[in-house]
Structures are given as structure tokens and as C-alpha cells.
Records
---
Amino acid sequence: MQKNINQNELKKHLTASVMFIDMNSFFASCEQQDNPDLRNKPVVVCTYKSPYSPIIAPSIEAKKFGIKTGMRTNDAKKLCPDIIQVETSPNKYRDYHVKIMDVLRSYSQDVIPKSIDEAVINFKNYHLVYKDLHQLGVQIKHDIKTKVGDWLKCSIGLAPNTFLAKLASGIVKPDGFVTITPETIDEVLGKLKLESLPGIAKSTSQKLVMAGINSPLELRYAQPQYLKNALKSIVGYYWYCRLNFMEVDLSSKPYKSMQAMRQISKQNRESLQYLQDLLLALCMRLEKRMVAQELYCRSINISMGFDEGKHWGGHTRSELPIQDGNRLLEIFKKLIADGENETDSALLNNKITSLSLNVSAFVSADLVQSDMFYTDHKRDKLRKTVYELKNRFGHESIMKGAEVTRQKAFQDMIGFGSIKDLQVEEVWNNEEDPQEDDYDIFD
């Protein structure tokens, strides 16, 4: 199971020694790396090829036309009729992510992946090893191009803490390199708006403006207690720390929740069998991820989106912790049945556009195993063994009866933030002779 990495410290650190690596248009660039015919062309990566498919990632060239993540393909074509639609290739992006992390770890062991296309390198303990971190950043860019892929670009930010390094990495794109120091921070912040800061959305901005804080500079020089009162939360103090060179973001946090979600094409929503298979497949995905992280859930949520912006959701809480996908399926079916009774209509219908399953309130496997009221220990051990075999010999080398559905309900996918399971994969690949009780299961 992934360990929690925490290198936060509430004291000022004035040397620019934290580096933030942000891969530019990562998914699309991976596609262009593998297919040179796509280079220098407006490419959009989508979950599936369809005129109305949402865009997961536009290429650097597509962004120049104003095409953004989340935009529908038909709307993007109005901005650029020549866009090239490419179906997502999650395994490809994972492979490139692992190779990039290998490059970063060749310079420091203090590397924390923040998402599939972002990572932080902490060089605070390497001041005797590297005298010029800017030159080192230039070398890292070169290594990514020569050792991973010549079409892959990254923007780098260098600053005294993680937040400022991330902020710096977004100032010049693509292929930028910006350093923020105590001498330059006011100049940088003076050119930005509140909502330009990563993590400040419209609602937070409105709270700050109501408190008389109208700019990043005013935010930086506000007193911590004033910010706590303005935001009615400890988050106000965190903002004081971030803009005054203290570290509150250099950590890899454990899961608070897991979500399995799919957008549903117009063609697929016509098939009730597809919708039922999709529900099952999403349950099995959650099972797989909980097994990988050695977690069990108690809180269970389902959400459906429909045409015309309508939504439905259901929630329940289990007295006993759950990891089994079939048990989750039973619970979600019960929630759907209850919802259909309440709405007096079928929920799995041809108007559904999205299906999202969410589990939370996690309990670690160690605590479950020691619970005297829990009786499924043998079944849990068998489940873990099944995933060990799957990961050694392939996903289809051994399958549950529930996994043999009439059709493949969805393609494998990965989101920009979904890397905790992938980090487990890296641990597995680096383990030369794992013991029986040390097996890690991964996506």
C-alpha cells in the first residue's frame, strides 16, 4: 500500500529549491510522439470517437484555436474544422509517466507525482550536490526529450515551496521555465488576479473580495488570522504560508474517496444491457482499486446525469466495511431501485449521459482483519490472490464470472489526477523478489 509522504514544514524557506514539472498537453503529446503524422496538427484526445465526444486533452496546436479540455468535439470543430480526433490510450500515458518519473528520480529521490502529468522535486537536501538548479532544470528538459520522447515538452517552475513552484510553471507555456524568489515574488503576483492562483476558484475569490482583499499582493501581505476569519477556515492560514515561503503542499495524501465514472455516448445509452454491464464494470473497477490500496469502504454514493442537465443521486452507509465488487453491485442496484420508486420512472434509460460511483469512509485492511464481527476473511484472501495472478499473467488470465459480460462496457481510462494506483505499480516493478505478504495490486 502506498505510504503517506509528508515533507511540509511551517518555517520560512527562502531558497528556490522546489521544482514543479508540468508536462504540456501530455495526452495529446504522447499521441504525437508515437505517431509523427499527428505532429504540428490540431489533435484532440477523446474518450471515444464521436461528433459529440468530450475532449480530454487538446494538443498545443489545438489550444491555439481556443479549444479547451471538456469542450465537445462538435463545438471544437466550429473553432477549428481540421481538428484530428484520437481515442484515448491510457496504457500509453502510464508508460510515459513512469519513464518521466525515472528521469526525475535519477536526480533526486524526493519526487512526488502530483498527477499523471505533474510532479514535484524537492531539492532542499541537495544543496551540496547541485549548485545551479536552473541549469539542472534545463538538463531535465533535455533528458525528457532524449530519454523519453523528443516531442514531449514540459514547463518548469522553481521556487522556495511547492505552491509557488506550481504557480511559476504555469506562467510560460509551453516549454517554459520561470523561477520565483523572495526578490521577484511581488513582481510576479502584481501581474495576476486572485483567480489566477491555483486553488482559488470564484467562490473563494468572492470571500476574499468581501474581506477587502482584491489581489494576490494584498493576499500575501494580509495577516494569517485575518485570512482565517475571511475564509472561515484554516485554509486562510495555508494561503498565508504559501505566499510567504512556508511549505504546506509537499505531501502525498492517502485516498479520501474513490470514484469510477463514465460519460455515455448516445449510441450506448440505447442499450439497457450496456448500461447494466457498465454498472458492473464500474463496481469491479472500485473493487480493484480498493484491493490495490488495501482499503474497505463504508460510504457508498451513486450519481447519474441526464439530458437537459437533470441529475439523480443516491447514498447509503454500510455497517460492515466492503471491498467486494459484487456486494457493491447489489447495493447500487438497491439504490437505483429505491430511486425508481421515488421518481416513478426507470433511471437506466436512453436519456442518461453519465454514471458515477463513489466510495469513501475507508477502513484499512489491517483494521478489518482484526474486527471480531467481520467474517469474510477467506473470501478477502482469495480476492487478493486473484488480483496478484491478474497482475502477473494479465487481466484476462483469470476472471470472475461477473467480469464475463456480454460486451466490453468501457475502455480503460485514466484521469489527470489518478496516479495513486499507478505509484503502486511502480513499487511493484521495482521489487525484485516480493514476499507473499508484500504483494501490491495496481491499475
---
Amino acid sequence: MSNFEINIPESTSKFTEKLKGKGKYLLIILIVLFAMPFVRGLLFSWKVIEPGYTGIKINRLVNKGITREDIVTGFIFYNPIQTAIVVYPTFIQRVAWTHDKAEGKPANEELTFNTKDSVPVNIDVAVSYQLESARVPEFYTKFRADNIDSFTHGFLRDTTRNIVANFGSEYNFDDINGAKKEEFLQRVGKALNETVRQFGVNIQQFGLIGSLRPPQTLLDAVNAKTQAIQKSIQVENEVRAAQAEAKKKIAIAEGEAAANRALASSLEPRLLEWERLKIMREQVAKWNGIMPSVMSGSGQGLLMNIPAPAATPQAPAGRK
């Protein structure tokens, strides 16, 4: 059997040997290309800080204070091994602490305090605040929070609860549920702002959601008292209306009596006699000269017919 041989051109053989000699360099290049993304992620990264947010650069390897020079915005590059970027929102934040699980967190977050007259009260509140961008380093140095929610539902909520309890104990329930409610809310908001302002946080608004919630027995008593007050006001209004109507009628009657007295005082005897004669003349003018045929009896109501007088016969002419 004859052997099968393949004749490879000399030029092709030389190219193959050159390729084998450079193969190790090609392999290194491929490894570098595949490793670059990982190396880049470890040694070099970037981040975009959107408008309305402020970031700070934190050096992981050096324990130093954060200064204003560490504030960053926009598009930034950093070494993720050595540097960390913490971003905080600097637009107005709003949080609501209520007993309603549909608002805020799905848990009962209402605030509770006791009034001066020992009435336990539950309230739902809303707080709006804003972080000053220039003081973000101070804020981070104080709280070391990577997320502002930890500050909101931690330090801010505890501070609000303590202030509400302190001021709430200075009022009776009727006052804080009535005329002094606005005063109470303003004092709480002012004290809360003074407490957190030193950390670069400004309270924009503090308000009550809904109404105060005392125990149900006290709430029923308050409603009954309110209804009684409204009923008394209604009765007073009705009394005033009746008095006004009575005064009106008295005034009308007094006016009519005064008019009658004035008329009576103006009628002199001669004037009355003249009026009587005037009436008689009118009756005489209307009489036809015939006596009435029916006259009433005196005392018995008897009616009788009176015949008309017979005509007197006249004598014939010429007789005497």
C-alpha cells in the first residue's frame, strides 16, 4: 500500500512557525482585554449626581473629617477602592407618621402624649424639611447615614415625639383641642426647627393630620358637650327672635293707641254735634214720607202690621 503524503508549501510552513512563536503574546493581549473591565471597576469608576442632590467624597483609607472641599455634583470620577460617594437629596422631603397603614410606612406610627389633665392623646403628624447642600458634610459627620431615611425615621422622629410630649403636657385637653391648638402646633414646629437646624436641616412645615384622638369615652363626652353648646346657642337665638317680634308688636300697638288718643283728643263736642246733625240730615233726605209698615213691639219681640190710614171721602161739589 502506498503512503499518502501532503505536501505543504514552504511559505505556509514558515507562517505557521511565526504564528506559534507569537501565540503567547496574543494570549496575553486577550487576557488583558477580558480583565480590563474588572480592573477598571476596581480602580476606576464614575457617578452622575442628578440636580437636586448633593454628594460627598469619603476617603475609606484615611479617617479624616468631611469638609466642603469634599462636596461633589454632576459627573465625577473616583477610585472605588479608596473613595466612597454618599448622595443626599437637597429638595424638600415630606414624612407622615400616622396610624393609617395606607399612608407612610405600613405600620402604626402615630405619636402619643398626655395632656396636663392626664388625658392620653394620639395624633397623626406630617413634617416637611430640607437639607442645606452647603452643610451636607456636617450632616454626614453627625449622623454617618448612607441613606437619609435612617435620619428621617430615626433621629427626626424621636426628636419630634419628645417635643410633642413636652409641650402637650402643658395644655388641658379642652384647650389643645380648641382655641390653643394652633399655638401648640406652632411651638412644636419652632422647637423642632431649632433642634435640627444646627445639623443643616430646616423644618419647612409641621402640621396635624386629622384631629386629636382621645379615648372614646372622652370623645363621646366632648361631642355631647359640643351638641349642648350648639343647642343652647340655637335656643338663645330663638329667644332673641321672639323678643324682637314681641317688641315689634308692642311698638305697633303703642303706635296705634297713640294715634287713637290723638284722634280722640282732637274731637270737640261741637264737632261731634255737627257730625250727628250731618247724619240726621242725610237720613231725612233719604226718607220717602211713608211710615214703616212693620214695627217691633217693646220687650216681647212682637211684630204687627199697621194698616195704612183710610182716605177721607170728599163731599160732592155743590153740597154743604
